[in-house]
Amino acid sequence: MIGKTMNGTSKMTTITRRIFFLSALLFSINSVQAASSWPDGKPVTWIVPYPPGGSTDVLARSIAQELDKKLNARVIVENRPGATGTIGAARVARAKPDGLTLLGTSIGPQAIAPHLMAKLPYDPIASFKPVITIGTIPHVLVVGAKQPYQNVKELIDAAKAEPGKLAYASGGTGTILQMQGELLQIKTGVRFVHVPYKGDSPALQDTLGQQVQFMFAPIAAALPHIQSGTLRALAVTSTDRLKALPNVPTMQQEGFDDFAVEQWQAVFVPVDTPDDTVQKINADIAEMLTTPTVKTLADKLGITLAGGTPDDLDKTRKADFEKWGSVIKQTNIKN
User: Fold this and answer.
1) Which domain covers residue 205, as residue numbers?
2) Is 128 found in the same domain as 61?
3) Residue of 256, 116, 143 whose CA lies nearest to 190
4) Number of structural domains, the chain?
5) How many CB atoms lie within 10 A of CB 228?
6) Where residue 29 falls among pLDDT bands split at 50, 70, 90?
C-alpha cells in the first residue's frame, strides 16, 4: 500500500514538473513573440515634452519617420510642452506599459527639474524604464568678441577682482545652461550674476550684444558666431576637444576636474514595460540612428549620436540626477 502511494506520488510529481516546464516554455515563447512583434501593427506615440521645432522634437520626428518604414506602423510624435518638460513626462508615466507610448526627453525633466519642483507628478527614476540614449549635445563657454577675456583663467580672475559683478546668461532657471554656470561658481568660489532668459536664443543674442559677460551655449547655436568672429570660445564642456573647434581646450584642460557636461537626449517608457519589449525598442531605434537621414540631421543640430544599452542610460540618468541635485542644493537655486 505504501509502495503504491509512493509510486502514485512520484508519478504526480513527474506530471506536475512536466506541466510546469511546458507552462514556462509557453510563457517564454509568448514573451519572445510579443517582443519580436512590437508594435504588432499598432500606432506608437512618441511624446516630446517641448514645443515643436527644437532639437529634441526635430530629431524625434526624423527617427519616427525611419521607424515608420521599418515597422510598417505609425509612429506619431506628439508635443506635450510645459513646466520645464515635466508635463509630457507625467503623461508617459501614467501610460499603459505596453511599449506603445515613448518619452523622448532630455536631461532637464529627468535630472534637474525634480530638484526644483516641490510637487513633481512622477518619480524621475522609479516611474520610467530607460530604453536608449539618442545623443549628446556638448556646450561651449563663450564671451562676446568685445569682451577682454582670452581664456577661462582671465574670466575667473576678473570675477574675483569684482565679486558679484560679472553676469552669465542662460535659457532659463533650471536649464542645463544655468547648471554649468552654477557649477563654475562651486569650482572657483566666485559669485556671478545669473540672468535667465526665455530660451537659449535670446540668451545668446544678449551675449553677442555684450549685455552679459558670458554663457555656456549649445555648440550648434554658438558655432556660426564663433566662426564669424562675433563670439570667442574659451572652452568646451565635452570630455575631448571637438572636431569643429580643435583649438579650443576642454574645461578639464583649463584646470577644472569633473566638468564634463553634455546634454543628453534619450527615450524612456513606463516602468512596468516588459524587458523584452524594451530590448526590441532599443534595437530598432539603434538601427535608425545609423541611417543617413538621421545622421545628417544630427550633424546639423550639433548632436553626437550615441545609442547604447538601457543599462548605459540608467547609469547616466542616475549619475546626473545626483550631480545636479548636489549643485542645486549647494547653490540654493529656487525655481
Assistant:
1) 138-236
2) yes
3) 256
4) 2
5) 9
6) very low
Looking at the DSSP bridge assignments, the partners of residue 266 are 105, 133
Spatial CA neighbour of 103 closest among 90, 92, 87: 92
pLDDT of residue 302: 86
- pTM confidence score: 0.82
What CATH number is associated with residue 158? 3.40.190.10
Contacts of 100 (CB under 8 A, 6+ apart): 39, 42, 43, 44, 45
Based on the fold, state whether residues 83 and 221 are members of the same structural domain: no
My answer on whether omega of the bond before 163 falls inside 30° of 0, hence cis, is no
- Say if residue 163 is in the same domain as residue 229: yes
> Look-up: residue for cell 510642452?
81
pLDDT of amino acid 14:
55
318: CATH: 3.40.190.150
What integer best gives the mean pLDDT of the chain?
A: 89
Alpha-carbon distance of 20 to 14, in angstroms, equals 10
CA 76 to CA 86: how far, in whole Å?
Answer: 20
Q: Where are the beta strands (DSSP E) in the chain?
A: 44-48, 75-79, 101-106, 128-144, 167-170, 193-196, 214-218, 231-236, 262-270, 304-307
